[in-house]
Amino acid sequence: MARTRSKVPAGGAKAASVAEEQRSAKKQLQPVDVPSRTFILPSKRSNAARFLTLQTPTSKASNRYFFDPEHGLYEFTSVASTPFAPRSILYTPKPNCSDDKQSQKSTEAYVTKKAELLIATPVDVLFFMLSIIAPADNNSSTKNMFQPLDDILDSQDDLSPHMRHIVYDPTFRPTLERRMEAMCDTMEAGDEKLYRFKEMKLANELVAKAERMVSQGLPASLEQHFVRKALEPPLMSVKQENVVKTTTDSETTTGGHSESQDSETLETQSTSATTITTTTTISEQQSGTSTPATQLSTADDISSLDNVTRLMRLRISLSFIKQSYLPPHLSSTIDEIFVSPESPIDFQPLDDRLKELADLRAEALASYTAGNYTRKRGFDDEDETDTRAEKKRRKEEEEKKKKAGESRGVRDLKKVNTSGMKKMSDFFKKK
């Protein structure tokens, strides 16, 4: 049987080759399976480290955590670009230095759509234990009793599997017991240690954490907005006293003879304007249109201000800890402790200073409002004066125009005394 060979036009072969290249290129550009989120894990971690899903202490929402029995529990802090300045990240594997050409061929890189890094940062397991040892609906008879840790954990039937993995891990058990002692009263019963939750010990532990935050320094945004701005005294407008000293020396020479006249005038002007030029050192020291409402004069005042600033930083740190890690029912309890006489830290100087600043701001606002009203009334008076002057000027111009159009005879008749004469209308009255 004869074999027939079909002929393909040259143009068709070229089109077929182009289509084949496009299909191969499309096949190469298909997305690969890459992680959608990037985690930065601790450099020192054991083989038993795991990703866990736990409920957050505040809202009970599920979140991702990293647990290492030897190094503790970590939460993930997101560091991402803002929506107004989007960024992306290019990831490439490390090339093999032994065979550069082969490594370049096998290297596969990818770009993330969103520049976001989830950095593992240590978190205290104490906050996760609060919902176990001090739940919001704890009405049992063992509420104020000393109990072993195992009995406390066994009584919790609604613990998640991942939380059970943490609390029952034998390697992590010493760390768990140490953190329990930080917020509980303890007592020994034979070979067993018993625990009872104590709100005051939790308050002391929160204050210690806040002290460490303050010693390391608050973020610049928190420091500027919540500390400096809150403690900044208002600017109060004051009346300035300017002393102007003018000395005039004049000499007149006529035909070789000179006559000198010296006069010295001392004027004291008291005004609140800001456009006065002073020529003596006294006036420069006394000039000024606004000054802080409070000025430091002694070392005691400076130390008192430093103490108030420190207390403000501590309050901001405590607020951050409570809002981020403390259950709501315990947060209100801690607030009551801080305002009680048994509080581990006294915020009364800070409260007095804030009240004083509030009064000064109210006074400054009232002064500013009154000054604006007086200035507005002054501007209105000036406008009325200008309007009256403009009307008077126009009236005088009209009178001048009328006088310029009158004849000399009319002007002379206006000067005649007509007091004894009858008016023309009297001759046309009805009899």
Helix content: 40-55%
The rough form would be described as elongated
Q: Report the mean per-residue pLDDT as an integer.
A: 76
User: Topology as H/E string?
Assistant: HEEEEEHEEHEHHHEEHHEEEHEHHHH
Given helix and strand content, the structural type is alpha+beta
- So how many helices? 13
The count of β-strands is 14
Low-confidence segments, given as residue ranges, are 1-10, 25-30, 239-291
Q: β content, as a range?
A: 15-25%
Question: Could you tell me the radius of gyration in angstroms?
Answer: 44 Å
Largest sheet: 5 strands, mixed
What's the short version?
With 431 residues, this protein is of the alpha+beta class. Helix content is 45%, strand content 21%.
Walkthrough of the structure:
- A hairpin with a 2-residue loop joins strand 9 (184-189) and strand 10 (192-197).
- This protein starts with 9 loop residues before the first helix and ends in a 17-residue tail after the last helix.
- It contains 13 helices and 14 strands.
- Among the domains are: 38-123, N-terminal domain of TfIIb; 126-197; 209-232 and 302-364, no CATH class; 239-247 and 264-288, no CATH class.
- It is of the alpha+beta class.
- The protein has helices spanning 10-28, 100-106, 126-133, 149-154, 161-167, 173-181, 199-216, 220-231, 281-286, 299-325, 328-338, 348-405, 408-414, and strands at residues 38-40, 50-55, 62-68, 72-80, 89-91, 110-112, 116-123, 147-148, 184-189, 192-197, 235-237, 240-254, 257-271, 290-292.
- The strands form 5 sheets. It has a 5-stranded mixed β-sheet, covered by helices on one side. It has a 3-stranded antiparallel β-sheet with strand order 8-10-9.
- The longest helix is centred in the last third of the chain and has 58 residues, at 348-405.
- The model is unreliable at 1-10, 25-30 and 239-291 (pLDDT under 50).
- Helix 7 crosses helix 10 (299-325).
